[in-house]
Specification:
By secondary structure, the protein is mainly alpha-helical. Helices cover about 75% and strands about 0% of the residues.
């Protein structure tokens, strides 16, 4: 029988919320991709998020949680650059 402390229960709930946020970010990224934008850089950033969420859930360390939030913030910033098409790096594909 596993004994769950309040810290572990809190980490599990936070991990569920992080997973939900990750799914929402991936959905937004998918919409950009369907619109024809090149999203590989943001996809790569998000690839590291799920293992970090699992690590946080296992360790309950605030530093691991901070890393997940940094990944999310970096991916969101990259998505904004894609939407705004700064530096003409993310031009829509030609039909």
């Amino acid at each position: 029988m596993k004994i769950k402390t309040p810290k572990i229960e809190e980490a599990e709930e936070t991990a569920r919320l992080l997973r939900s946020e990750l799914d929402m970010i991936k959905k937004d990224l998918s919409e950009l991709r369907r619109a024809g934008y090149y999203t590989k850089s943001a996809d790569n950033m998000l690839g590291a998020a799920w293992p970090k969420i699992r690590l946080y859930k296992a360790t309950c360390e605030d530093s691991d949680l901070a890393q997940v939030k940094e990944i999310f913030n970096a991916a969101k910033a990259e998505m904004e650059r894609i939407k705004n098409n700064e530096d003409n790096e993310y031009l829509k594909k030609e039909d």
